Amino acid sequence: MYEFSYHKAASLKDALDTLQSADDGKLLAGGMTLLPTMKQRLAAPDQLIDLAGVKELAGIEKHDNHVVIGAMTRHAEVASSELIESTIPALAALAELIGDPQVRNRGTLGGSVANSDPAADYPAAVVGLGATVITDNRSIEADEFFVDMFETELEEHEIITSISFPIPDTAAYMKFPNPASRYAVAGVFVARFGSTVRVAVTGAGGSVFRQDAMEKALEADFSPAALEGIVVSADGLNEDIHASAEYRAHLVGVMAKRAVAACLEI
Amino acid sequence: MLQSVEMTINGKAVKETVEPRNLLVEFLREKQRLTGTHVGCDTSQCGACVVHVDGKPVKSCTLLTVQADGADIKTIEGVGSDQQLHPMQEAFRQNHGLQCGFCTPGMVMTALGLIEENPDPTETEIRQWLEGNICRCTGYHNIVKSIQAGAKALRED
Predict the structure, then answer these.
(1) Which residues of chain A have pLDDT under 70?
(2) Which of A121, A174, A231, B19 is the most exposed place for a label (fewest CB within 10 A)?
(3) Full-model pTM
(4) What is the mean pLDDT of residues B51-77?
(5) Average pLDDT for B85-111
């Protein structure tokens, strides 16, 4: 790792002020992606601003028909939260599938979402549930938030403070994990809100995306059978040593059917 | 620029100055001479460096020492003693849960983290919990048996 200076922010304002005055400052949340990237010298910020002590970024609360989760909430906290288990169990189950137990003890919701890794799990829930990403100065709808691989709507000096997830009637996430890294080769989040259905796909493309044809088919008939015959195009999907674009396209169909089946079992 | 850190390691208060880029595993091994915590992959995959930070197992190769300022750290040296192995360590010994022993400190610290949350884990739960710990010798079967035996010993303790 190259040298850098370190500042543990005492408040959100302190974090913002420090970020604005740094030449090339980076926010440190759980560090589960940033630190390995710095160790490989793929990133070399001159200052890290640690958000671990910022109280405004903590906490899990229910507001009417939404669950609002602070950006610094660790994956293990989401996985074991009784409030989330009783409102959006699919979200707790998704958090339990991220990485390994040690990573889940450090990694955070805000860090994962801000990074927009194409194979991360949380973006599927954020888009699948139609969540709202709340920052220090505005609210961004999930459909606008994720732009591309490692690219979001966030401005350079903007900090995610929390994410507000609407509580669905039913939801489920199914992923085909890479057997070594546990990142999603393809993962599908399905959520039903009354007559509206949302289907979000992670791992398969440059960043998370919705599957319109599946949503329409499921709004007419919420069953795995409704997805028979829907062909997922391999155009533009990721291709690497782990899976071809065609294989990922196929997996999207399989994971979507399993997610719908899981929704119906609850 | 050096920064000052204070933490408790295995019950002992420690005060030092470190570079911000110093990793907790380097701090433990090189400054504290607690070499039971190992560096296997140095890429947060193998789990040989697992220690407890405020009671939770984490990979100390992916944590800056400055992030652990004020924390309560427990390493393998804080488990059992030279005279008396901890029941989980004794279970690894009895069940042939190690061969070369390189991954063992991380396995034991991870196992103790599991027992803290789930005192009576099933075999499947143990295997899932070991997702972040790699062993190249045993094929895991005896590690799973060791953790089952260690958990049982701790429940009866």
Answers:
(1) 266
(2) A231
(3) 0.95
(4) 98
(5) 98
How far apart are alpha carbons B145 and B96 in whole angstroms? 9
Q: CA of A7, closest CA in chain B: separation in Å? A: 9
Contacts of B132 (CB under 8 A, 6+ apart): A99, A100, A101, A102, A103, B45, B47, B50, B59, B110
Write out pLDDT tens, residues B9-35: 999 999 999 999 999 999 999 999 999
* Phi, psi for B85 (deg, rounded to 5): -65, 150
* Nearest by CB: A6 against B44, B58, B64: B64
Which of helix, strand or coil describes residue B113?
helix
* CB pairs A-B closer than 8 Å: 71
**What is the ipTM score, two decimals?**
0.96
Residue A9 confidence (pLDDT): 98
Which residue has tokens 């429940």? Answer: B155
Residues 32-91 of B with CB under 8 A from A: 42-45, 47, 50, 56-59, 62-64, 66-67, 69
pLDDT, one tens digit per residue, over B100-124 is 999 999 999 999 999 999 999 999 9
Domains of chain A: 5-49 (3.30.43.10), 57-166 (3.30.465.10), 170-264 (3.30.390.50)
Instruction: Specify whether the CB–CB gap between A23 and A67 falls below 8 A.
Output: no
Chain-chain contact of A106 with B114 (C-beta, under 8 angstroms): no
DSSP string across B142-155:
HHHHHHHHHHHHHH
